[in-house]
Design brief:
Strands 4, 5, 6, 8, 9 and 10 form a six-stranded antiparallel sheet that branches. Strands 3-2-1-7 form a four-stranded antiparallel sheet, with helices on one face. It has a single domain, classed as minor pseudopilin epsh fold, CATH 3.55.40. The chain is α+β, with helices and mostly antiparallel strands and 158 residues long. The chain is built from one helix and ten strands, in the order H-E-E-E-E-E-E-E-E-E-E.
């Protein structure tokens, strides 16, 4: 009877192991990319919510003796002093967004007369919002991944 000596692995066994490892890695990489995108969306949501709260705090403290607000654009948001957004004001604090967008910023907030705009203004001393609405944040152009922040009267931010 003839017995073969098996001291190593065959090329076929090696190829099967490599194929299985790459299959598992590609599935894991896809899940990792989805997780990364969700984390980016959550972080952006929290940053914009923090900016809204910061503008409200500045207004409550009457910093600079003025109201404070938040201006939204598709790929950025700005904390600004005053009751009207002025893009040339040196006191504006601007944050740019990457791979995340604010959906329809020009239709986000409405005032008591039903006029829509991209700005929410917080009154000095009491911090009440003169407009209300919902900020919708999406991942790039994929609206299936979205988060929202609601600004309600009298300045409640959820």
């Amino acid at each position: 009877m003839l017995i073969k000596n098996r001291d190593g692995v065959t090329m076929l066994e090696l190829l099967i192991v490599i194929m299985l490892v790459s299959l598992i890695a590609s599935m894991g990489f896809g899940a990792y990319k989805i997780w990364q995108r969700k984390i980016l969306l959550i972080n952006t949501h929290d940053e914009i919510k923090s900016a809204l709260i910061r503008a409200q705090q500045l207004a409550t403290a009457a910093s600079g003796s003025s109201d404070w607000g938040l201006h939204l654009a598709t790929s950025s948001y700005t904390i600004f002093p005053g009751s009207v957004y002025n893009p040339l004001n040196a006191n504006n604090k601007i944050w740019n967004l990457e791979n995340v967008e604010i959906q329809n910023p020009e239709n986000t907030f409405s005032n008591a007369w039903g006029v829509y705009g991209p700005d929410v203004i917080f009154s000095k001393f009491d911090g009440e919002a003169n407009n209300t609405g919902t900020v919708s944040i999406i991942l790039g152009t994929d609206s299936s991944y979205n988060k929202s922040i609601e600004v309600r009267a009298p300045g409640q931010i959820d």
